[in-house]
Amino acid sequence: MRQKAHITFTLNGEPAEVAFAPHKTLLEVLREDLALTGTKHGCELGECGTCAVLVDGRSILSCLMLGLDAEGRRVETVEGMATEQGLHPLQETFADTGAAQCGYCTPGFLLVAKELLAVNPEPTREEIKEALSGNLCRCTGYIKIYEAVELAAARMRGDTEAELPRESVYGYE
Amino acid sequence: MATNNGHGRGNGGGELKSVGFKGDAAEGGKLKVVGKPFRKVDARSKCTGQTRFADDIVLPRMLYAKLLRSHEPHALIKSIDVSKAQAVPGVLAVITGKDLQIPYGILPVSQDEHPLCVDKVRFIGDPVAAVAAVDEDTAFEAMNLIEVEYERLQTITSIEEGVFVEEPRIHDYGDHGNVHKQVHLEFGDLEEGFREADLVREDVFFYEGNTHLPMEQHAAVAHFDADDKLTLWSSTQTPHYVHKALAKTLELKPAHVRVIATPNGGGFGGKSDPFNHEIVACKLSMLTRRPVKITLTREEVFYCHRGRHPVLMKIKTGVKKDGAITAMDFQSFLDGGAYGSYGVASTFYTGALQTVTYEVPRYRFRGLRAFTNKPPCGPKRGHGTPQPRFGLEVQLDKIADELKLDPAEMRLKHLVEPYTVTANYLRVGSMGLGKCIEKVVAGSDWKNKFRKLPYGKGVGIACSSYICGAGLPIYWNSMPHSGVQLGLDRGGGVRVQCGSTDIGQGSDSILAYIVAEILGIDPFDIRVLTADTDLTPVDLGSYSSRVTLMTGNAAVQAAERARELLSSAVAEKLSVPSENLSFAERRVFDVENPEVGVTFAEAVVLAEQKFGTVATVGSYVPPRAPGKFKGAGVGPSPAYSYSAAVAEVEVDAETGYVTVPRVWIGHDIGQSINPMLVMGQVEGGVYMGLGEALMEEMIYRANRNAVHKFPSLLEYKSPTTLEMCDVFTYLVEDADPNGPFGAKEVGQGPLLPVMPAVANAVFDAVGVRVDEVPITPEKVLAALRAKAQGKDPRFGPSDVPAVNWPDPLKVLTPAEGGDGKEMPRVAVHS
User: Above 0.95 for ipTM, yes or no?
Assistant: First the structure.
């Protein structure tokens, strides 16, 4: 029978170790061997962005990375975004603005958006579009996602009173 | 600028912090929850990875299944040898069509599918055998060791072949040859209508097929347990119909079958049929007595399909000089793919809703659906309506151009009157299309743009309408279409149970909002339990934009009954007339003396003391439709939503590349239950329409055995953030008496006007017609080239097949004094 590989790495800020069949992708290791099913799959061919996670702070498609390559790295999944203080501002704004409809692509978008805000705390709409262009969403038309990212960015910059413009919620008059 | 208190950050655990209430006090409005932008009841789970989709379920000793799919498009199965697969260590079961002989299908008239093909395969991707093994790799390895011997048959690959190739037949049922269904309905004296016309136009259009492309691949987990009960968790939009199909094909008592629809990672109609993989997983679990999971690959999702039918259309329309329609003669030819699916309904839908936007006094519809050796088509967002709506709205644009009328004004002038019955017996209720048109015309600065922008830029307008639920169920019965049970507990908690399925549109949340509104509590105090055939009353499913209207009405009834019980008990306790009691902010109190009251939890205790366990039910049956003729079942709805869109395009005449920077859309929602969720549906609908307008196509390699051209997310082009347009949305609230709080649908309607608006804008930009979607650069260039050569400046089909139509089923229109019944089959108008 196949022999399992074994790695140690940092998973959502905690030391982790896991044994798995060596051909498995990071996506499969996370979902099947670590029971972190928050990371989703849309194609398993690197086409849709759904399985994005952060490795050493950079977004990668976990379906294109071998689990073995995570040895010694810092991996962050959607399960690691919230802290004891509560949800990450992006999680909060995605939830509050309706940026998550079916929610299936949401974890990937959240992590890519987190990466964006780490390097660019005040992105323009165009920069947000560019950053998220590798993630497909079939529900929202992306607009509520942009708005959620902008709102989270504003709150993370200290503007705790920031809200959506009225027309984003009720439409134009 | 108003701040939006509606989606603040309270979670309902504290002192009524949870939002909505705060905003209300300021607005002083009557409604406390309905019309407010609360977050969805499951939003946080979805943003933290806690929502459990079907493939996230893992059970002890669970096996994994794989389907072997045909690589032949049309062939007889001569033999299947599974011996090598069975010999693989770790394989627990291998089955073929012989193990599951009972056919099924979503429509009672199209029971033409088998879980695994029995004697022939009908498209590349049709499953022939299945394996269950200890892990996915083993199942995959064994699947590849199954040997199937096929005998090829001629392949039917197009509408024309389906119409004219009589043998071999893909199915041994249907109207004739490979024609699945032909219909012919005539309402009023067409010839008289065309005689009255000042202009008669005939146009031919083609709408290419496309697919739903939900981000979640279909997945299911089946468990036949030690007590001989079967449970299936599946990403399905229609657990009730899956329940029926499982009981039938597996020969189990319905009472021993439980179907739980997991939250759908997108549906759009693609998870509305009972699927072979669901039945196969159940069978494998019954054989192995272990849980069995199956998760489709993305490629397999393309083979499940059930997406938009390719439709070829010919429309003859007569109009007066002011654009008033005098008669319309509509023909549609649908490429159905290999199975029936919803196809008979789809066929009727391509002819149903033409009449509910503008006055069409006389109307004829001829529709034909052909079987072809491709993945089966079915219902995709808008089901059978986007195709004819595209043709109709582009033709109206041509008519306006020919009559030198402003196409927006021409439409405004001839709108169907609200609360009337159309020539084909659809009862229109509230009708806010006029306001929608006015909003987008003003918002887009239409008057200063139409025919006035520089070459290469243009604007186009189109309108549409959609049903808010089908008037009839899929299988004949006179029971409710939707049921809700409410349970109230002593702690003040409320449990809502309903068979509806949340596919991301927010149907779970709608139930909570409506019940919270009526009982004066916080929606986040409510436990919503849905889509479980053991635990929830039947709701027919998330299709036909029926959910908000039908589950909403059922929820209203259940909640009002609960309110009556509580009122009666509280009135007795407080010695206040029950009609004086109000329910708000988790209290039941005397409106004249608000400090006199009890908490909601105390009210439940009082009611439980008085009546026993407090639980109520509500249900909903749509009103009877006015049409009584055969075929009158498709089109009637309790209400119709309306949309109008203006698209602005930029066309690069060198490359033919079309970009759409912005779309203005007005949608008549009746009443928003939650405007933020309505906005999300409008934006998502515009997005999906944009994809259909510009790039999405489910196509096959020509003359190469109907091999799908690109069954992958990369090459099946769909809009990314870089292609998505800006959307300016206007919500028109023309409350409909049949909707809960006046609400109408939004899940499907806003997609419909986008494609024709884009096509009309392309004409405004560069003066050529692309009478086909998607509007790809090569089609635009071909039309521009034709124009440069002095030919007809258009790209599109030239004609439809000349077929023999059955005699028309004739119905006098209401204006002619008709009663909705079919005329005797003699010449009534000669």
Answer: yes
